[in-house]
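Q: Hi! Curious about what Aluminum-activated malate transporter 12 looks like structurally. Here's the sequence.
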Amino acid sequence: MASKDDHVGIEMVMGGDNNSSVSSKSKGDLKKHMIVFGEKVRRFPGLVWHTVWKVGREDPRIVIHALKVGLSLTLVSLLYLMAPVFKGVGENAIWAVMTVVVVLEFTAGATLCKGLNRGLGTVLAGSLAFLFEYIANECGQVFRAVFIGAAVFIVGAAATYLRFFPYIKKNYDYGVVIFLLTFNLITVSSYRVENVLRIAHERFYTIAIGCGICLFMSLLIFPTWSGEDLHNSTVAKFEGLAKSIEACVNEYFNDQLMEVEVSLEKESEDPIYKGYKTVLDSKSTDEILALYASWEPRHSRHCYRFPWQQYVKLGAVLRQFGYTVVALHGCLQAEIQTPKSVRTLFKDPCIRLAKEITIAVMELANSIKNRRHCSPEILSDHLHEALQDLNTAIKSQPRLFLGSNSNQSTNMLALAAAHARQKQEKDHGVSLTSDKTDSSALLEWKTRRTTEQLKENERKVLRPQLSKIAITSLEFSEALPFAAFASLLVDIVARLDNVIEEVEELGRIACFKEFNPGDEIIDVTCSKQQQDVTQNHLPSHGAD
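A: Let's find out. The predicted structure is below.
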């Protein structure tokens, strides 16, 4: 018989073996992590170079803007580097560098907006500060401090309140911030500094120099216009929607539709998703571009105020149109799909209708791109014929959509009710076995309550059972997914009228040239590279 010491020895040996195995496993995991980390470090320079090259190739204007910013900072640094200039402006030359960093933006409209806001805010703040300084100097030292404190409080509160006005917040929010900053710097520092007027002059001159360099670079050296970006992005949205509609219908009637499984990781790579994603995410971008475009000079040949806000309205209508395309795309990912044999019956009219819709949307894109009115025949007879063909094809198969058994719903209801009753009786039988030891009064109360719960539970169970039986037993259920798909396709045609009205309104206000018969488009397929470049033209910066 083994002794207690023998058992302890065996446990120690086993524990030592376990510790050694854990230690070896930890070392193996550490070595594996080190190998993975070394591989990432080795690939990092190549990944950085690939990203830099990709961004510059997609939009060369980014490279130009980066060079413009570098050149502007070099020019403004001469205020420090050149001794004669530094003696003239002093240490306040740093304000010119700060102005270039903050004001110089990607587009000319954004630079004008921030530059003029900064200049206007500085001038107003300096003028008001000197007025208060003149009044304070006429009083005693104590009253002067009280007056400065009261002025800072009143002006600060009033300026902050003004920032919440919709018009001020939209157009002059940055200018109000600069006004508040400059006013407080000058007013508060004037209490201790004697030559505050000279400091304010030098600061104003350096800010003006910085703004001047920014405006020169933005307006004269390879300018990038916000209005052109808004115009090109609108064209790209039309082209993306046209591509999504055509690809969605073609994929719906693809033989491999039932085998396709769309995952969330691959959704961003889906060309259909890419087509309408830009439209759905365009609200804030359109509003910012329209705001910046309103600050730009009239560089068109007519020199009139261009209706940039009409582009924003057109974008809102396009988003409503895009929501239907999203629902159409959702039919491809539905849990219940129409069988291939049924879809084949309606393949030709649906593909023809989608092609006509694509032609109409591309005609709208082409008219905006060339700044001309759209064709009077944009809703051609071919589109109406395609709709009529689809309607005829659906009417030719009434049994798929109407069913044949008139008493089918009654039978389903009775079957579902019987199934629910059997399930509840089974559950009730189990619950009664636990009540045999209770008193008679308590048993009577529980029986009455159980009966009421049975009725309620039967109604709750009946609904999901009826839904499940209806899905599996209805004869026309296999055609329901296609009915939803066809309905959305027809709804796209109906919503197309609203889009055409907005495009015609844009052409009327913007004075687009008249349509000529030779302006009709030939190729309805859009260039993917051109669409990607146009989407990358949209700036991501705000007006802060």
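A: A fun detail: The CA atoms of residues 216 and 395 lie 67 Å apart.
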